[in-house]
Amino acid sequence: MEIKRAPDIGFCTGVRRAIDILERVAREQGGVETLGAVVHNQQVLRKLADIGASIVNSVDEIKGSRVVIRSHGVGPQVINQIQSRGIDIIDATCPFVKRAQVAARRLHQSGFYTIVFGDASHPEVKSILAWASDNGLATQEATVLSSLDNPPRRLGILSQTTHVPARYARFIKDIIDYALVKDSELRIIDTICHDIRRRQEDSVKLARESELVFVVGGHASANSKHLVELCSEITTTRLIETAREIRRSWLPEKGIIGITSGASTGEETIDDVVTRLKSFTRD
Ligand code: SF4
User: For the whole model, what pTM was predicted?
Assistant: First the structure.
């Protein structure tokens, strides 16, 4: 049995950047608050807490004079709310999310109704729509458009940054089918993150040569679930959050076990998975 990692796994560039900013500011200032958790990985949050990085869940809860915005970003209303309290903003919004926010603002300013292909409850999607002044909706089903009371003629389409490109393409085709009978004007923007796109491609390649793939990521993580869906089409795939979840009985007698990870999984968690797998192979 061989254990093989996909290249460039661990934190994505946006999460790595946000953690680096948070660590630097917390060390320089002796502590700092973030609006929402920077990752959902408990190991990482404990380490950040040790150097004084604490989490607040709303602007009203901020006690200090500065706050870090995490990689998911926030809408302009939240920024105004923070600034009106005289609190400094340290912006760790991922540049790919920022790109989607700017696109949403431009669409709105040009009179387009914004459709974000993604999970409406995800903080990043909410932040993108907020930059379109919430003049739009987030959905994964193009049919939602037919249920609108006054269907808009000008439609701007964006994607959640972590979505699967092929699914976004199918969604766009469905929107075109809907729009072609309504004199619509469409503007389509590719806002899928480069890091996620590469991670998906690498994971699919790894799945093709593996008997079993472990996706190491949060059970609620959207980008990890997308990796599981893509790899499951090719080989047996399991989503695990920690090494402790692995069962000996899952492992094949021979062949390759592939390891890939979601965007907010740290190297240490992946190393733990490799160590546990190796311990089984030594039995
Ligand atoms: S997954 Fe992509 S868009 Fe999201 S934080 Fe990471 S680099 Fe940025």
Answer: 0.93
